[in-house]
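Sequence in, structure out. Go.
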Amino acid sequence: MAKFKVGDRVKVLPGVATPFVGLEGIIYGVQPHDGGVTTMDRHIVVFGRREKRSFYSAELLHIEKSK
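Output:
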């Protein structure tokens, strides 16, 4: 089972050279790994500019909804 689901709010973590580090977005889709390795699932994140990028779960941090 994927670590994140569609609609989750996430933040891109540092570690990979990307201009998206620190940005927040919403999970738009999940592409499960062909071999069933959940750590290798790809998560499509859509950002405020409607730009979409793919990340592994280890590159993302779940942002809890404020109450």
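Check: The chain is about 0% helix and 35% strand. The mean pLDDT is 88.
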